[in-house]
Amino acid sequence: MHFFRNPEIKRNLLFYAAAAALFTTAVYVWAGLSFAVVMLLASLFFALLHLLTTYFRYRRIRLLCQEIDLALHGNGAIHFSDYSEGELAILKIQIDKLFTRLMEQSEALMEDKQKLASSMADISHQIRTPLTSIRLVLSLLTEPDTSKEQNRTLIHQLSLLISRIDWLIEALLKLSRLDAGTVVLKPENIPVAKLVSAAAQPLEIPMELREQHFSFQAHTRREAVLGDFAWTTEALGNILKNCMEHTPPGGSILVTARENAIFTEIVVEDDGPGFDAQDLPRLFERFYKGKTSKDTSIGIGLALSRTILARQNATIKAENRHKGGARFILHFYKNEI
């Protein structure tokens, strides 16, 4: 039997045999043969009783190991209610914790794999689309009967397509650095007026070409947020860019700020079409494009903004204005939430 191959059982048998021989001999010397026989039978009885209880305990441990093996291979479950006494109860608690942790990690890994596969498919699609257009533009540029005016138009389109790919790769690299935790954020006290000015500066010319009006209002002009200046500027800039792209020519974009004892609030509003009700819950998902998104939209800017803000004890939500248009509400909390 496997039971008797156990080194512990072998040691116990030798110990019981030696003890039984010793006590039986001592009783025989001091009390006679009859008492010695009784001592020998008693020793054998208790040894057998111990071996039986040990056997059943080992048997349950072996069954537990088999259940764990099946569960780890996805072919069964562990019935922890069957183990409720003594050291098995302690072992059960520890295995229960370990098994729960392993299951959580397994589910998290599967979810990460699915997200990675989905992200890779989205990235491939997002890059393939402008690349296809670039090939088409290049083929048109090689046509001998293409006029100079057409060449200028095609070169301009080519520049836009390359800029789109460059922005996508840059945004993906930033997201990957944030996800991997390799970004070292350097929090500082940033005046909101300075933050808004830095975020809006790259958009001044596009807004001017669209004849859009941009304004900033603050209660005291002394409002400030705690965060990394460069990354927070990136987050707010993506939000302003989204508003600019969805605001019609001649429209307006308004940024307001206020501060209280709990948080500093920055609100970005536009007078565009706003959001579709079905898009609001998924607006900050990576590569998600709402119904009002343009064909050139990639669906990564808002996701990047939310990731940056989440790393800096800040939140963002989107909603529709009562009078029409979109509204983004950012809260930079002064203490951990």
Describe the protein in words.
There is one protein chain. The mean pLDDT is 82. Helix 1 (7-31) packs antiparallel against helix 2 (33-72), helix 4 (148-180) runs parallel beside helix 8 and helix 5 crosses helix 7 (229-246). The two termini are 60 Å apart. Strands 2-4-5-7-6 form a 5-stranded mixed β-sheet. Strands 1-3 form a two-stranded antiparallel ribbon. The longest helix has 56 residues, at 86-141. It has helices at 7-31, 33-72, 86-141, 148-180, 192-200, 204-209, 229-246, 301-310, and strands at residues 188-191, 213-218, 224-227, 252-259, 263-270, 314-320, 326-333. It has 337 residues and is an alpha+beta fold.
Secondary-structure blueprint of this entry?
Layout: H1 7-31, H2 33-72, H3 86-141, H4 148-180, E1 188-191, H5 192-200, H6 204-209, E2 213-218, E3 224-227, H7 229-246, E4 252-259, E5 263-270, H8 301-310, E6 314-320, E7 326-333
Parallel strand pairs: 2-4
Antiparallel strand pairs: 1-3, 4-5, 5-7, 6-7
Helix pairs in contact: 1-2, 3-4, 4-8, 5-7, 7-8
Percent helix, as a range, is 55-70%
Taking strands numbered 1, 2, ... along the chain, how are they ordered across the largest sheet? 2-4-5-7-6
Query: What is the rounded distance between the termini?
Result: 60 Å
Number of strands: 7
Task: Throw out a few tags for this protein.
single chain, about 325 residues, alpha+beta, 5-stranded mixed sheet, two-stranded antiparallel sheet
